[in-house]
Structures are given as C-alpha cells and as structure tokens.
Amino acid sequence: MSANGLPRLGSGAVVGLPRALLHYELYPFWRVLFERLGLKVVVSPPTTRDLIEQGARRSVDEACLPVKAYYGHVMALRDRVDAVFLPRLVSLLRGTYTCPKLLGLPDMVRHNVGRLPPPIILDFDETKRGSGLGDAALALGPRLGRTGRQASEAVKAALEALGVFRAALWAGLSFEEAAARATQGPLADRPGGGPSGEALRPPVRPTDWREPAALNGRPRVALVGHAYNIFDPGVNLDLRRKLVGLGCHILTSEMLSHEEVQAESEAMPKEIFWSSGRRIMAAVRRFRRAGFVDGIIHVISFACGPDSMVGEIAERETRRESALPYMVLTIDEHTAEAGLVTRLEAFADMLRRRRRKTGGEGP
Amino acid sequence: MATGDNRVYLGIDVGSVTTKAVAVDGAGEILARACLETMGQPARQIMQVLAEVGRRLGEAVTVDGVGTTGSGRNLAAALVGGDVVKNEITAHAVAALRLVPEARTVLEIGGQDSKVILLREGVVVDFAMNTVCAAGTGSFLDRQASRLGLDIREFGRLAAGSTHPVRIAGRCTVFAETDMIHKQQVGHPVEDIVAGLCRALVRNYLNNLAKGKDLEPPYVFQGGVAANAGMVQAFEEALGAPVFVPEHHALMGAYGAAILALEEHQEKEARVGAPGSGGGSGPGGADRSPSSYSPTSRFRGFRLGEMDYRTSAFDCEGCTNQCEIVEIFLEGVLVARWGGRCDRWERAGVVPGRSDRSAAGAGRSTEDRAGSAAKAGHA
Ligand code: SF4
Ligand code: SF4
C-alpha cells in the first residue's frame, strides 16, 4: 500500500469491478478509465443464487438484496485481482444523493469480507467542489503514479464512453448492448492510445422507443426501478426474459434522458432527492402520459427505504391520474419464483385482454 | 347434456392444498366435477380427479379442450395434454365473469393463498395475491375450527349467528391465535369469538391485500373459504354491500380453466371455419380411448391413469444457480421439462423418445419415483 492509501499498481495490474449496484450506471466509465490508466479490468461473474447466498452471509441482516449481491460480487473477485475497486458514491447529480446504505458500503465491505484484495476507495460527490465524477477520477491517476496528462486523457475517454453508453440506453438499447457500444470500440482496446473520440460509434436512433412501431398486439410494459434491479437478471429472477417470453415489449426507466428526468421532476410539487428515486418517479410519469405504454411494473427491493417511499408516491399518483395497470414487485432473496411467474402471467394477460377490449392495435 | 352434443371441455386446478377438475359442455354448464387433497402428490391426484370426472361423464364424450391452472398447471398440462395453461388470477376472473358478467370485484380465499381481482367492463384492471402470509386462508380457519372442536361448517353457522363479535387481532396467525385463546379464557361465548375471528380476517384482507384498491360492487366471493357463512357476513358488513357466492365457489379455478379451454376452442373453430381440423400430438396419442379423442385437443384420454408416469428432478450444475429441473415421463418418454432460469433445458421442451440431459451437460439427479409408486392404487 502506498502512502496515499491506494495500492501500488504497476502497468498491467488487474483491478476488479464488482458487477453490482451502480456498476449498472457507470461501468463503461470505470472500465475505460482504468484501462486508459494502464490497468487490466476484470468484472465479477454474473449474479447467481449461490453468489447472493455468499454475500448475504457477510452483510448485515437488514441489507437489501442488491447490497447482499454486492458483497457476493466483491467476494467473487478475491484471489483473481490485484485490487478491487470500491467507489463511494455519495452524489451523482447536484441536488440529489444516492441511498444512505451506499455511503458506508466500502467500509462495511472492507471490515466484513476477509482476504479482500487491496481496495481502491474513491469518493464521488457532485455536491462538493472537486469531488464530482470527472474531478475525483482525475485525482486517481497521479495517486496511482500516472502522469497528469495520462490521467486527464483517461478521464476524457471515460467520460466519452459514459456519454455513448447513456445515449445508447436513452435510445432504448439494453445494458449489454449499450455497454458493448461504449467499451468495445478500438478506443478501449488500445488503452492509452489513439486520439479520443475517433473510433466511438455514434448511437443509433432507429430503435428509439419514443416513436414506437406497431407491435402486433404485444403489450408494452414499462419496467421501472433501480438500474441494478432492472438490469441484473440474477437479482430480479430474470424478470425481463420472463416478460419477453410472455410476449411483452419492454421499456425501462433507464431509457429516459437526464433532460427528460429533470423536466418531469421539476414539474412535481416536491422533487425527490434520491437520484434513483427521482429517475423512477420521472419515468412513471413519463410512461403514464406516453399513450403507448400498456402497464407499469415497479421493481422494488425489500427493506429499501427510498423504494417504499417513492413506490408509494408513484403508485398513488398513477392510480389517481390514470387507469394504467400498475404492479409493484417486491424482491428479496426469498422471493418465490412460482409466485412471481403467476403475477407476471396475470399481468400480461390483463394487458392483452384490455387491449383487445379497447380495440387497441393488434388482435 | 345441455347442448345435446357430446363435446366437453375440462378444467384442472392444481393447488398446494387441493386438486380439482371440472367438465363443462359447450354452453359452459358444469357436467361433472371432482376434488381431492393434493397431499404433496400432485401428479397422482391429477390422474385421480381426471379418472373421477371421466367416470361421471360416462363413455360417450369428446374432450375438445383442456385448460389447466394453479401452481401445478404445467405439470397438469404435461400429464393430461393441456391446450390452455393459465395463471390462477386469469382463471378465477374468467370464472367469476361467466357467472356474474357485471362483477367488479372478486374476493378469493383458498386453502393457502388469497387474491383480490378488480374488474371493469369485463376485464381485469388490477389484482393482488398473497402467497406468503397464512392469516386468513382456509388452512388457518380449519385449524382454529378444530382447536375449538368445531366442524368448519358449524364454525361458519355459529359465526353468522353471533350478535356481539369480540375484537380479535388478525394481523398475523400467531397473534390471532393467542388472542382467541385469551378471549376464550375470559369467558366469551364461542359464537362471538368465531365471529370476531372472521371480522379480523376480513379486516386483514381488506387492509393488506386490498390496500389502496377501489373495491366496488358487485362482489363475487369464491374459493373454499366462501363456504363459511361467518366470512361472508363479515365481508358484507365491512363492504356494506351484498356478496355473491357462486354455487361452485370452491371449483372456480378449475371452472375458469375449462371456460378458457372452451373459449380457445371456439376461437380456433372460428379461425379455421369448421370443426375437426388441426391435430393432437405428443406421446400417448395411440392410447387415447376412441370415445374421448378429439382432433383439436392435445388431451391424452381418460385412460391416462393406466399409463405409467414418472416425475423426477435434478439439480442443474450448469452454473451456480443450481436450478431444480423437473422432468415428466409418460410410458418412459420425456413429455415435459422445466425449472431452469436459463433456457438450457427448456430449449428441448418436449423431446419424444430421448432425454438429452447428457448432451446439455452434467446434472446431479435426485430422481424420485413417487409417480409410478403411487400409480398402483388406481386404474
Ligand atoms: S436504494 Fe434501496 S435497493 Fe438501493 S441500495 Fe439503498 S436500500 Fe438497497
Ligand atoms: S438451468 Fe441454467 S441457470 Fe439454472 S443452473 Fe442450469 S445453467 Fe444455471
């Protein structure tokens, strides 16, 4: 460990990223950043039941499922990496905060997970000068012994990758597609080289969900919730695949742009100050008024304070303002697969029968 | 038979507590029914209720469609040859609407779960189900009745006759039970205690399951618990409106499944233009009794119970999810397989004549032959 609290990592050393929590919002940023700083990046394997069980044993009882999964992912990186990246994400957007459970997470993990590889703990806080995503990342380079120029180039490329990733999500691509688009260009393949931006493919627009094509009777279901609950099939019991299997077309709360989220949020009597909650609330409102969304499913974590509050407001408002079907799915590691399937089937049936009744598109 | 022809539609509802089957005619009238406790042996009980319904129908019928529902709906469809596999919410809603087309709320309390379904203009607009909390389900009421030394019917009658129901905490089974015992010791009459319990369960149902939902009449109350006059009265008091209990309230899931099979058959006929096109499929086709054979249904025939069937399960070791994969064999032929989180096993779906478990990778087998062992008991 060096004097500044960071492990000494030479070029080619391997840093591990836990595939959990805000990984689903920031992965391309981290990946390009570390690669441009000359490190190799390893992402923990996909979430499985076993991994969650391992994590649940290390975490406090009142932890939510995604936090338990996070522990499991950190553990899965042990013995495989030279350092594990444990960012402390306080605020990603001025005026908003992440969940309080995330603030103490790096320290909790450090104390509860044995045989932990040297951690890289870095604070990100948009509410403080010099601690925003770009600035905090910029400070990382010199602390790892890289030149200022290398550091600023790395951050620039990482921010570009993040921009590509977000634009792809906002156009309607899945997490995997968007992440691939943002990280698999020649840019990321040549860490430290190439003029920035040159190889990044522009996001395609034809799939944009805002101008929906006919669906031949397939109901459009909006999945809203934290990115990690919506994108991680191991956490949400493969909800998406199940819904697609039931003939549904999926939209998600991650498909709204920052501008759309802000516009919806500002129109509310009182803005939500959890960043994720703000996005969820905005998505519910946007989808409700879209006209082409047949139903909303809100995925919430059991024992999640922000979720239960935002969920309550969103559900009440939707029922008051519309007749749009709205279902809340509460998920933890004890969620029974059979009960979930029954609910999803019933929901899909309901949307299809309603559509038939109201003479919507399709049969 | 009401319609004068011999075409029937079967509905099978396999729940964790009971397994039920009904047969309806082309007009949706119930012709035969059967109900057994599931007792952890769904495959065996499916065969049994099917055989029972077959006996009651007699020989000269053609099964034109089979619908299955309940937690064992996939198993039932695989064994019997199902045409429509539907979740319990849809099946119960369809059943209620068939009997009360203008129904706006379905209250359903079964042996181990409860549901509320909101209907507007004949379609489901909202629902909730509770499969976790046992408070207020049939099993809990049964236990309390037997603890008081009452038959469940008597329990209902007594409750309905009470004039001063006591207040009982109904939030959870443990509290409710303790509170009841306390009220008994204090010396309250039994009828007031059971009436109080019914009220507590209804309160619990309305405050938790139906929380935030606009319940509107007409109300239909179904599921096994609807037989309890005390519960009906407690609902009517709490809702301030009459609650309709269908005659076959305990069979509504199976009835709904049969109606869905009937509807699908009618749609199929409307599409094709004439009956008798299409074809059955799957192993067992050769063994169908001629009288029950229909070209439009996958139904394997009432003589199914004589066939050798076997269910087995193994843990997939393809990844650390370790999914339990269930396989159903009829006469040694794999007819269905499910249970994986990925489509590694489902991709094969139904593979007549061969099990490609080895091709898909190693799996630890925990085969149980409950199916074939149970078979000896009936024919
Ligand atoms: S916001 Fe909720 S789900 Fe996310 S980490 Fe906090 S408690 Fe868990
Ligand atoms: S069925 Fe698929 S998800 Fe389940 S253990 Fe096997 S490989 Fe893993």
What's this model, at a glance?
The complex is a heterodimer of chains A (363) and B (379). By secondary structure, chain A is an alpha/beta fold. Helices cover 48% and strands 13% of the residues of chain A.
Supply the key terms.
heterodimer, A: 363 residues, alpha/beta, four-stranded parallel beta sheet, 15 helices, 13% strand, B: 379 residues, Nucleotidyltransferase, domain 5, five-stranded mixed beta sheet, 11 helices, 14 strands, 22% strand, globular, disordered C terminus, binds iron/sulfur cluster
Structure, described:
The complex is a heterodimer of chains A (363) and B (379). Chain A has 363 residues and is α/β, with parallel strands linked by helices. Chain A has helices spanning 23-36, 49-58, 65-77, 100-103, 105-112, 133-143, 148-171, 175-183, 186-189, 227-231, 239-245, 258-266, 275-290, 305-321, 337-358, and strands at residues 14-17, 40-43, 83-91, 119-125, 220-224, 249-252, 295-301, 326-331. In chain A, the strands form two sheets. Chain A has a four-stranded parallel beta sheet with strand order 2-1-3-4, with helices on both faces. In chain A, helix 1 (23-36) packs parallel to helix 8 (175-183) and helix 7 (148-171) runs antiparallel to helix 8 (175-183). Chain A is globular and about 65 Å long. Chain B is α/β, with parallel strands linked by helices and 379 residues long. Chain B has two domains: 7-90 and 252-306 and 353-373, 2-Layer Sandwich (Nucleotidyltransferase, domain 5); 101-243, ATPase, nucleotide binding domain (Nucleotidyltransferase, domain 5, 2-Layer Sandwich). Chain B has helices spanning 42-57, 73-80, 88-99, 138-147, 152-161, 173-186, 190-209, 229-239, 252-272, 357-360, 370-375, and strands at residues 7-14, 18-25, 30-37, 62-69, 84-85, 105-109, 114-120, 123-130, 219-222, 243-244, 309-316, 324-330, 333-338, 363-365. A five-stranded mixed beta sheet of chain B has the order 3-2-1-4-5. In chain B, helix 3 (88-99) packs across helix 9 (252-272) and helix 7 crosses helix 8. The longest helix of chain B has 21 residues, at 252-272. Residues 275-291 and 347-379 of chain B have low confidence and may be disordered. Chain A binds chain B through residues 48-51, 233-234, 237-238, 315-316, 319, 323, 325-326, 336, 338-339, 341-343, 345-346, 349-350, 353-354, 357, and chain B through 71, 86-90, 120-127, 129, 131, 212, 319-322, 341-342. The complex binds iron/sulfur cluster (2 copies). One iron/sulfur cluster binds at residues 316, 318-319, 321-323, 340-342, 344-345 of chain B. One iron/sulfur cluster (SF4) binds at residues 64, 66-67, 99, 101-102, 226, 301, 304, 306-307 of chain A.
